Amino acid sequence: MFAGQLAKLKGCRVWEVQETDEKVNLLKDELNFDDAFNYNKETDFDVALSKYFPDGIDVYFENVGGEMLEAVLNHVNKRARIPLCGMISQYNQVWTERQGIRNLLNMVGKDVKMEGFMIGSHIHHFGDFAEDIEGYIREGKLVSKFKMNNGIESFLPSLVSLFSSSNVGKVIIEVNK
Ligand SMILES: NC(=O)c1ccc[n+]([C@@H]2O[C@H](COP(=O)([O-])OP(=O)(O)OC[C@H]3O[C@@H](n4cnc5c(N)ncnc54)[C@H](OP(=O)(O)O)[C@@H]3O)[C@@H](O)[C@H]2O)c1
Protein backbone atom coordinates (compact mmCIF):
# COMPACT_ATOMS: atom_id res chain seq x y z
CA MET A 1 0.00 0.00 0.00
CA PHE A 2 2.79 2.44 0.90
CA ALA A 3 5.10 1.35 -1.92
CA GLY A 4 2.26 1.82 -4.41
CA GLN A 5 1.39 5.27 -3.09
CA LEU A 6 5.04 6.33 -3.23
CA ALA A 7 5.31 5.06 -6.81
CA LYS A 8 2.21 7.09 -7.67
CA LEU A 9 3.79 10.20 -6.16
CA LYS A 10 6.80 9.61 -8.42
CA GLY A 11 4.52 9.59 -11.49
CA CYS A 12 4.14 5.83 -12.11
CA ARG A 13 0.92 4.16 -13.20
CA VAL A 14 0.27 1.75 -10.34
CA TRP A 15 -1.73 -1.44 -9.94
CA GLU A 16 -1.90 -3.59 -6.83
CA VAL A 17 -3.12 -7.09 -6.15
CA GLN A 18 -5.25 -7.53 -3.03
CA GLU A 19 -7.22 -10.25 -1.32
CA THR A 20 -10.65 -8.67 -0.79
CA ASP A 21 -12.98 -6.39 -2.74
CA GLU A 22 -12.95 -4.01 0.23
CA LYS A 23 -9.18 -3.52 -0.18
CA VAL A 24 -9.44 -3.27 -3.97
CA ASN A 25 -12.06 -0.50 -3.61
CA LEU A 26 -9.97 1.29 -0.99
CA LEU A 27 -6.99 1.39 -3.35
CA LYS A 28 -9.00 2.64 -6.31
CA ASP A 29 -11.41 5.03 -4.56
CA GLU A 30 -9.36 6.42 -1.68
CA LEU A 31 -5.71 5.95 -2.60
CA ASN A 32 -5.91 6.79 -6.33
CA PHE A 33 -4.32 3.61 -7.62
CA ASP A 34 -4.85 3.20 -11.37
CA ASP A 35 -6.35 -0.22 -10.82
CA ALA A 36 -6.31 -3.24 -8.53
CA PHE A 37 -7.63 -6.77 -8.64
CA ASN A 38 -8.73 -9.36 -6.14
CA TYR A 39 -6.49 -12.44 -6.38
CA ASN A 40 -9.17 -14.64 -4.82
CA LYS A 41 -11.62 -13.79 -7.61
CA GLU A 42 -9.21 -13.62 -10.54
CA THR A 43 -7.30 -16.77 -9.74
CA ASP A 44 -5.67 -17.32 -13.13
CA PHE A 45 -2.92 -14.72 -12.69
CA ASP A 46 -1.70 -15.07 -16.27
CA VAL A 47 -5.16 -14.18 -17.60
CA ALA A 48 -5.55 -11.35 -15.06
CA LEU A 49 -2.16 -9.85 -15.91
CA SER A 50 -2.94 -10.00 -19.66
CA LYS A 51 -6.14 -8.10 -18.92
CA TYR A 52 -4.65 -5.45 -16.59
CA PHE A 53 -1.25 -5.03 -18.28
CA PRO A 54 -1.82 -5.17 -22.04
CA ASP A 55 1.39 -3.11 -22.44
CA GLY A 56 3.42 -5.28 -20.05
CA ILE A 57 5.04 -4.61 -16.66
CA ASP A 58 8.06 -2.35 -16.11
CA VAL A 59 8.44 -2.64 -12.32
CA TYR A 60 7.08 -5.33 -10.02
CA PHE A 61 7.56 -4.74 -6.28
CA GLU A 62 7.73 -8.28 -4.96
CA ASN A 63 6.11 -9.09 -1.62
CA VAL A 64 4.29 -12.32 -2.45
CA GLY A 65 6.44 -14.81 -4.39
CA GLY A 66 5.37 -18.19 -5.83
CA GLU A 67 2.64 -18.26 -8.44
CA MET A 68 2.41 -14.46 -8.69
CA LEU A 69 6.10 -13.98 -9.43
CA GLU A 70 5.94 -16.71 -12.06
CA ALA A 71 2.92 -15.06 -13.73
CA VAL A 72 4.59 -11.64 -13.65
CA LEU A 73 7.67 -13.01 -15.41
CA ASN A 74 5.40 -13.92 -18.34
CA HIS A 75 4.40 -10.23 -18.69
CA VAL A 76 7.58 -8.27 -18.08
CA ASN A 77 8.79 -5.66 -20.55
CA LYS A 78 12.33 -5.26 -21.79
CA ARG A 79 14.61 -4.08 -18.92
CA ALA A 80 11.90 -4.54 -16.27
CA ARG A 81 13.01 -4.26 -12.64
CA ILE A 82 11.90 -6.49 -9.77
CA PRO A 83 12.97 -5.39 -6.27
CA LEU A 84 12.55 -8.37 -3.93
CA CYS A 85 11.12 -7.09 -0.64
CA GLY A 86 9.56 -10.37 0.54
CA MET A 87 7.73 -13.54 -0.50
CA ILE A 88 5.02 -13.95 2.11
CA SER A 89 3.18 -16.77 0.30
CA GLN A 90 6.23 -19.02 0.78
CA TYR A 91 7.27 -18.39 4.41
CA ASN A 92 5.37 -21.20 6.11
CA GLN A 93 6.86 -23.98 4.03
CA VAL A 94 10.18 -25.78 4.33
CA TRP A 95 12.38 -24.62 1.48
CA THR A 96 12.19 -27.90 -0.44
CA GLU A 97 8.41 -27.50 -0.65
CA ARG A 98 8.41 -23.87 -1.69
CA GLN A 99 7.11 -23.12 -5.16
CA GLY A 100 9.89 -23.01 -7.71
CA ILE A 101 9.80 -20.35 -10.43
CA ARG A 102 9.91 -22.17 -13.78
CA ASN A 103 10.30 -19.23 -16.15
CA LEU A 104 13.36 -17.39 -14.85
CA LEU A 105 14.68 -17.78 -18.38
CA ASN A 106 12.32 -14.95 -19.40
CA MET A 107 14.65 -12.64 -17.48
CA VAL A 108 17.46 -13.36 -19.91
CA GLY A 109 15.62 -12.54 -23.11
CA LYS A 110 14.16 -9.34 -21.64
CA ASP A 111 17.27 -8.07 -19.77
CA VAL A 112 15.25 -8.13 -16.50
CA LYS A 113 16.93 -7.17 -13.23
CA MET A 114 15.79 -8.82 -9.98
CA GLU A 115 17.46 -7.79 -6.74
CA GLY A 116 16.77 -8.53 -3.09
CA PHE A 117 17.15 -5.92 -0.38
CA MET A 118 16.92 -5.56 3.37
CA ILE A 119 15.77 -2.33 4.99
CA GLY A 120 18.79 -2.48 7.31
CA SER A 121 21.14 -2.05 4.37
CA HIS A 122 19.57 1.35 3.61
CA ILE A 123 19.15 2.58 7.17
CA HIS A 124 21.44 5.58 6.50
CA HIS A 125 18.61 7.01 4.33
CA PHE A 126 16.08 6.71 7.15
CA GLY A 127 16.25 10.37 8.28
CA ASP A 128 15.52 11.72 4.79
CA PHE A 129 12.88 9.04 4.23
CA ALA A 130 11.05 9.84 7.50
CA GLU A 131 11.11 13.56 6.67
CA ASP A 132 9.65 12.93 3.18
CA ILE A 133 6.95 10.58 4.53
CA GLU A 134 5.97 12.99 7.32
CA GLY A 135 5.61 15.76 4.74
CA TYR A 136 3.53 13.61 2.38
CA ILE A 137 1.19 12.55 5.23
CA ARG A 138 0.81 16.14 6.48
CA GLU A 139 -0.01 17.34 2.95
CA GLY A 140 -2.54 14.51 2.52
CA LYS A 141 -0.54 12.99 -0.34
CA LEU A 142 -0.01 9.70 1.49
CA VAL A 143 -2.67 7.85 3.44
CA SER A 144 -1.62 5.67 6.35
CA LYS A 145 -3.99 2.84 7.24
CA PHE A 146 -3.35 0.79 10.33
CA LYS A 147 -4.89 -1.52 12.89
CA MET A 148 -3.85 -0.82 16.48
CA ASN A 149 -3.74 -3.77 18.88
CA ASN A 150 -3.13 -3.28 22.59
CA GLY A 151 -0.58 -4.90 24.84
CA ILE A 152 2.30 -7.31 24.34
CA GLU A 153 -0.19 -10.18 24.81
CA SER A 154 -1.60 -9.26 21.40
CA PHE A 155 1.74 -10.05 19.73
CA LEU A 156 0.95 -13.60 18.59
CA PRO A 157 -2.56 -12.90 17.22
CA SER A 158 -1.15 -9.76 15.55
CA LEU A 159 1.59 -11.78 13.85
CA VAL A 160 -0.80 -14.53 12.76
CA SER A 161 -3.21 -11.89 11.38
CA LEU A 162 -0.60 -10.92 8.75
CA PHE A 163 -1.25 -14.27 7.06
CA SER A 164 -5.06 -14.22 7.21
CA SER A 165 -6.01 -11.01 5.37
CA SER A 166 -7.94 -9.76 8.38
CA ASN A 167 -6.30 -6.32 8.47
CA VAL A 168 -6.41 -3.22 6.34
CA GLY A 169 -3.02 -1.52 6.51
CA LYS A 170 -0.19 -1.93 9.00
CA VAL A 171 -0.62 -3.82 12.25
CA ILE A 172 0.74 -1.87 15.21
CA ILE A 173 1.00 -3.11 18.80
CA GLU A 174 0.70 -0.46 21.49
CA VAL A 175 2.65 -1.33 24.63
CA ASN A 176 2.33 0.80 27.76
CA LYS A 177 4.94 0.84 30.54
N1 LIG B 1 13.15 -6.62 2.82
C1 LIG B 1 12.91 -6.15 4.03
O1 LIG B 1 13.78 -5.54 4.67
C2 LIG B 1 11.54 -6.31 4.63
C3 LIG B 1 11.20 -5.72 5.86
C4 LIG B 1 9.91 -5.89 6.34
C5 LIG B 1 8.97 -6.65 5.65
N2 LIG B 1 9.35 -7.23 4.47
C6 LIG B 1 8.39 -8.00 3.67
O2 LIG B 1 7.41 -7.13 3.17
C7 LIG B 1 6.18 -7.84 3.00
C8 LIG B 1 5.09 -7.10 3.71
O3 LIG B 1 5.38 -7.19 5.09
P1 LIG B 1 4.64 -6.27 6.15
O4 LIG B 1 5.26 -6.52 7.46
O5 LIG B 1 4.62 -4.90 5.60
O6 LIG B 1 3.23 -6.92 6.20
P2 LIG B 1 1.82 -6.32 5.81
O7 LIG B 1 1.87 -5.82 4.42
O8 LIG B 1 1.39 -5.42 6.88
O9 LIG B 1 0.94 -7.66 5.89
C9 LIG B 1 1.24 -8.76 5.12
C10 LIG B 1 0.17 -8.89 4.04
O10 LIG B 1 0.57 -9.92 3.15
C11 LIG B 1 -0.57 -10.44 2.51
N3 LIG B 1 -0.49 -11.89 2.42
C12 LIG B 1 -0.43 -12.79 3.41
N4 LIG B 1 -0.34 -14.05 2.93
C13 LIG B 1 -0.36 -13.93 1.58
C14 LIG B 1 -0.33 -14.86 0.50
N5 LIG B 1 -0.23 -16.17 0.72
N6 LIG B 1 -0.36 -14.38 -0.76
C15 LIG B 1 -0.46 -13.07 -1.00
N7 LIG B 1 -0.49 -12.12 -0.02
C16 LIG B 1 -0.45 -12.55 1.25
C17 LIG B 1 -1.78 -10.04 3.35
O11 LIG B 1 -2.44 -9.06 2.58
P3 LIG B 1 -3.90 -9.36 2.02
O12 LIG B 1 -4.74 -9.45 3.24
O13 LIG B 1 -4.26 -8.22 1.17
O14 LIG B 1 -3.78 -10.63 1.27
C18 LIG B 1 -1.19 -9.35 4.57
O15 LIG B 1 -1.97 -8.25 4.98
C19 LIG B 1 6.43 -9.25 3.50
O16 LIG B 1 6.74 -10.08 2.41
C20 LIG B 1 7.63 -9.06 4.42
O17 LIG B 1 8.37 -10.23 4.58
C21 LIG B 1 10.60 -7.06 3.95
TrEMBL record:
Any one Gene Ontology MF annotation carried by this entry is: 2-alkenal reductase [NAD(P)H] activity
Span of domain Alcohol dehydrogenase-like C-terminal:
2-126
A UniProt-annotated Pfam family = ADH_zinc_N
Cleavable signal peptide? none
| Organism superkingdom | Eukaryota
Task: Give the PANTHER family listed for this entry.
Answer: 2-ALKENAL REDUCTASE (NADP(+)-DEPENDENT)-LIKE, PROSTAGLANDIN REDUCTASE
Q: Look up and give the organism this protein is from.
A: Iris pallida (Sweet iris)
Sorted alphabetically, which InterPro entries does this protein's record hold?
A: ADH-like_C (IPR013149), MDR_fam (IPR045010), NAD(P)-bd_dom_sf (IPR036291)
Name this protein carries in UniProt: Polygalacturonase-like
